């Protein structure tokens, strides 16, 4: 197969409120850290949680405004995008590298009702394929109510 693929899909929680930056040319972007976690039971029977932090950058025109207006620290979000590594120089002139997730699609998994303390299973999706307006998607499917085994009972590390 010829070609390459650079695609990232993440579901995680915001580590802090999104920070918006405006530029002289009229463009803007929003940045925030996103935490993803995996939990498993090790060979000694102890629960282990590993958290990975991702630097997320959104610069798609309509998506920046939605992310800045509706996302808050602790909210759960689904993102799609690509990995991008930037090179920059610190104050001493040393080369530094930053790896970021450049998101171009987003689904908010924390609803307004959950923000207000009421449970809801509905998410709202936004994407920026054609530089057009953001559009909501259908509600997310839910797990069956009679599931006999929870994820906590699973001792597989994946």
Précis, in short:
9% of the residues lie in helices and 44% in strands. About 18% of the residues have low confidence.
Would you mind describing this structure in some detail?
The chain is globular and about 55 Å long. The protein is mainly β and 158 residues long. A hairpin with a 5-residue loop joins strand 3 (28-41) and strand 4 (47-58). It has a single domain (8-141), classed as OB fold (Dihydrolipoamide Acetyltransferase, E2P) (Beta Barrel). It contains 2 helices and 7 strands; from the N terminus they run E-E-E-E-H-E-E-H-E. The protein has a 5-stranded mixed beta barrel with strand order 1-3-4-6-5.
Strand order of the largest sheet: 1-3-4-6-5
Q: Can you give the helix content as a percent range? A: under 10%
Q: Mean pLDDT, nearest integer?
A: 81
CATH class: Mainly Beta
Please name the CATH architecture.
Beta Barrel
What string gives the helices and strands in order?
A: EEEEHEEHE
Radius of gyration: 18 Å
Helix and strand composition category: mainly beta
- The helix count comes to 2
Instruction: Give the CATH topology.
Output: OB fold (Dihydrolipoamide Acetyltransferase, E2P)
Number of strands: 7
Number of domains: 1
Instruction: Provide the β-strand percentage band.
Output: 35-45%
Distance between the amino and carboxyl termini: 28 Å
CATH superfamily descriptor: Nucleic acid-binding proteins
Low-confidence stretches: 118-122, 129-152
Largest sheet: 5 strands, mixed, barrel
């Amino acid at each position: 197969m010829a070609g390459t693929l650079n695609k990232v899909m993440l579901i995680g929680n915001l580590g802090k409120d999104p920070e918006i930056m405006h530029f002289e040319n009229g463009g803007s972007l929003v940045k925030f850290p996103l935490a993803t976690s995996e939990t498993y039971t090790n060979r000694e029977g102890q629960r282990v949680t590993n958290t990975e932090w991702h630097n997320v950058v959104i610069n798609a025109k309509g998506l920046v405004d939605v992310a800045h207006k509706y996302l808050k620290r602790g909210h759960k979000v689904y993102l799609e995008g690509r990995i991008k590594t930037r090179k920059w120089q610190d104050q001493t002139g040393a080369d530094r590298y930053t790896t970021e997730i450049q998101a171009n699609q987003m689904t908010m998994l924390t609803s307004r009702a959950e923000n207000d303390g009421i449970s809801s299973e509905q998410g709202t999706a936004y994407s920026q394929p054609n530089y057009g307006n953001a559009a909501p998607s259908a509600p997310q499917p839910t797990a069956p109510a009679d599931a006999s085994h929870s994820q906590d009972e699973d001792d597989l590390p994946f």
